[in-house]
Amino acid sequence: PAAVDKVAAGPATDEPVRVHMPESAGTAAEVATNGxxxxxxxxxxxxxxxLDGGELRRVELVGYPVAKDQPKTNFALLDxxxxxxxxxQSGLATPQETLTGPKTLYTSSQSSYELxxxxxxxxxxxxxxDAGGYTxxxxxxFVRGSYDVxxxxxxxxxxxxxxxxxxxxxxxQTPQEKKSSHFGAVHTFDGIAVYEQKPGSTDYRFKKxxxxxxxxxxxDLQQKGGWLAMLQxxxxxxxxxxxxxxxxxxxxxxxxxGYVAQYVGAAATVPPQATHSFSSHVYLGxxxxxxIGAVAPGLDLAVDYGIxxxxxxxxxxxxxxxxxxxxxxxxxxxxxxxxxxxxMFKLSEAQYRSMAKMKKFAPRIAELKERYSGDRxxxxxxxxxxxxxxxxxxxxxxxxxxxQFPVFLxxxxxxxxxxxxxxxxxxxxxxxxxxxxxxxxxxxxFGISMFLQQRISGQQIADPMQQRVMQMMxxxxxxxxxxxxxxxxxxxxxxxxTGLTQQWIIKRRLDREDLARASAR
Length: 521
Prior knowledge:
alpha+beta
């Protein structure tokens, strides 16, 4: 029998574990082959359930290819094959013993289940009868069109004494080795997320913990409601207890490998010859921003763009609207870019006016530099007087870039974190806007557009070193953008083209103004 706060550890061992975490669990290689399985097919899942423990051992997401070049191979969110160890376990325990755990051998009336045509839901029941005086029935409830899976664990007490039973559900994962992304500068988040009740309050907050942080500071929460999840790029596996139920959430390193996120519910007393049912549900799927918030309060916060979330969320909302019109994320990015540049037209006009005046007064500025070459303070004062007299601000040209830069970074995170844009095609050779251009055509076009902008602006730079740096910028930026998501390069390329058009319009306007002033004289 297990201790008061213990349930079974895993398929490869009889050692007890604490409610929070395994003390000793077998390796994935030892447990992956245990037990018969039943297969479940719905419109959203192809799942394997092991009769050992009634565990979800593999869950493929239908319609989400593992890679762009493998369109017929579904991405497996849960998978018990090495090295992709990621499973969902559940069971019941009492203060005296484990009722059901990973070593419990369930039975099923069928070897496979499939959501029938026209049916809205599918139940997959498993049963375990113990000679010691109880029967447990575990049922998975799948719903058409949903990634939300119901989990019911029902115990019937056939013994002579009462049972104090607690349910638990846990995710056990061995994280994959992270691949470098864009010069290794940025990695997406992998770890545990929790919707935590604020101390002394009925309000909740969203918190994330990287896996390696759990080595130093494990998660250990007792609260009402909320949820616990394992989070990765584009996808989430979340354990969601009944609303307002007493819950214990823990997240710790596994004894042998990986990490465990576990929910334990409050105990319920089951009298002799009585039945009690424990319900929870798990969300296993993509972080779809339009629908995930309806699954559980706060679950939409799992789509986290960091400190740029306000800007990125607005960008995604506007792009989603444009996508509903165009049905193409590439055209949505183009229209979004035109929106941004259109909103900044007045700032761009101020920029080009400033550049034109700088070009016009370049000889006078050069004259001042020559006159006050030995007196920096007088040069600065004379230059500022010239700016004030002629009515232009040399810093005005910086504002469009300053404003666009947060938009650029926010769009980067939208492309990196929004599952809606995962493997999204554009046209011609661009078949994945979230990946780099395979032929580097867009980065090259971007570099050419940047070069043309410099030539058309005709900005005069007196310092030879600065001039050489500016001449090299199109080449350097082309190399820098070569490995960025093609959707991001598309944004900046279209922005440059729009800027060139705006430059031409504003230059024509300035020429007309100069002619009008000349005629007035």
